[in-house]
Amino acid sequence: MSNGETKEVILIGAGIMSATLGSLLKELVPDWKIKVFEKLDKTGEESSNEWNNAGTGHAALCELNYTKENPDGSVDIKKAININEQFQVSKQFWAYLVDSQLIRRPQEFIMPLPHMSLVQGQKNVEFLKRRHEAMSSNPLFASMEYATDHETLKKWIPLIMENRATTDAIAATKIDSGTDVNFGALTRLLFQQLESQGVEMHYQHSVDDLKRTRDGGWEVKVRDHAGGNLENHKADFVFIGCGGGSLHLLQKSGIPEGKGIGGFPVSGIFMSCTNQEIVEQHHAKVYGKAPVGAPPMSVPHLDTRYINNKKSLLFGPFAGFSPKFLKNGSMFDLITSVKPSNVLTMLSAGVKEMGLTKYLIEQVLQSKEKRMEQLREFVPNAKSEDWELVIAGQRVQVIKDTEEGGKGTLQFGTEVVTAGDGSIAALLGASPGASTAVPVMLDIIERCFPENIKEWEPKIKEMVPSYGLSLSENPELLQKVNQTTDRALGLDQNKAIHN
Ligand SMILES: Cc1cc2nc3c(=O)[nH]c(=O)nc-3n(C[C@H](O)[C@H](O)[C@H](O)COP(=O)(O)OP(=O)(O)OC[C@H]3O[C@@H](n4cnc5c(N)ncnc54)[C@H](O)[C@@H]3O)c2cc1C
């Protein structure tokens, strides 16, 4: 408890973000009262579910869109450093939860897996070499390897190298400290723990509206689907962690910080391999380059996944268009998100992003065979009968007016919106997503509870030893953090088993 005051907290939505914020608050202020309202009948069923996202522990070890090629040919790795540092924060908190026995079997949600970038064609091969030079000189990426010779590549990615001419220009980088994260399992584990610590979980309860109260708190209007009742609940602090559903509730809150923001939904489809013999021939997450005109979230990748104690193989995501903001959402989500305060922003984006909308609609209309052709760029021998389509989650990209992009600019990152008085926060956007849940929720805590943060700092540092420090600038701390997190999360032992 802080300043002698016990607060009432409402978390809306039971995905990874609410689970993370709830877990952080429970450690910082165990006697604050937390209630969770979730419209579905389970936790982690929307984007956080293991089949609805790619399960990449995004640490910028393989995603080419996190580095930019400068006009002089040099490679800017600032964004990659930032994303890696954020993932290190998440890993440290998860390691703390394991060491404190709040989570028992880390292998249920995180497994070591090499992360690789793969490019074809001479120009791309040269770019990857320059990128490798820039990245491997930073302590965060020091162990990144680079190869162009087919013999080495056959060892790294046999399935991808089958049936390729030895004259093909192809290159890859590999780093063994990558991970596959089952965010659905992690969400469930965190909520189980929170429930055992007295957090009230209300399933099949949709939040329909929320209003400020005179004392500076919030009244939250909740619909109980089972009983059909409308309930009112009060809170000092509200977190809108509804994934794609956050924008509508942010608009209903009426806070000025939420005005002028719109959302654009992009759906995802994966192909899953049904032939276990083929699944066993691949052991990595291999990220390629996004096709020209494609949004960054549709970078194709071939991923080993660990789901329900079984190794799987997924390819995608293929982007698509649906007006729904959640997989279990409504066809009216997009149209009802247009309000007088964001209509100009939305219309400007509509004009600017015609090309993207056309691209997404074309993607939806693609036949399975057309998708197989894209898969064959990765797995030349892929047979249609070994692969099936899996519908993944919806991402709602933020649209807002920015200085650089002007009116109605589509954003591909995560956006945190908080009220000036810190009584409410909402999370919008989807990338890098679940991997950065811990630093993003710590950011919300700093912004919404500035009066408590000094008092909480020692505990935050116990949970995240690198809190407030840059690991890339502190190689000794980086080494220590890597050792302790790898041991706690079982990444060192499991790496030895699988390599
Ligand atoms: C195709 C795809 C691939 C991705 N790949 C990755 C990846 O590889 N790595 C990564 O780190 N991230 C990835 N992401 C992003 C990641 O999945 C999301 O950032 C993350 O899961 C969002 O978590 P959340 O808790 O905000 O939302 P969600 O998990 O969507 O949870 C929101 C919850 O709120 C509930 N809800 C909604 N409205 C209401 C309401 N009014 N009342 C009550 N409850 C409500 C929903 O039912 C849901 O349970 C991917 C996403 C997609 C779609």
UniProtKB/TrEMBL annotation:
Keywords in alphabetical order: FAD, Flavoprotein, Oxidoreductase, Tricarboxylic acid cycle
Reaction(s) this enzyme catalyzes, per UniProt: (S)-malate + a quinone = a quinol + oxaloacetate
GO molecular function: (S)-2-hydroxyglutarate dehydrogenase activity; L-malate dehydrogenase (quinone) activity
Keyword Flavoprotein part of the UniProt annotation: yes
GO terms (BP aspect): tricarboxylic acid cycle
Enzyme Commission (EC) number: 1.1.5.4
Essential cofactor(s): FAD
Classification via Pfam families: Mqo
Family membership noted in the UniProt record: Belongs to the MQO family.
Protein name: Probable malate:quinone oxidoreductase
Gene: mqo
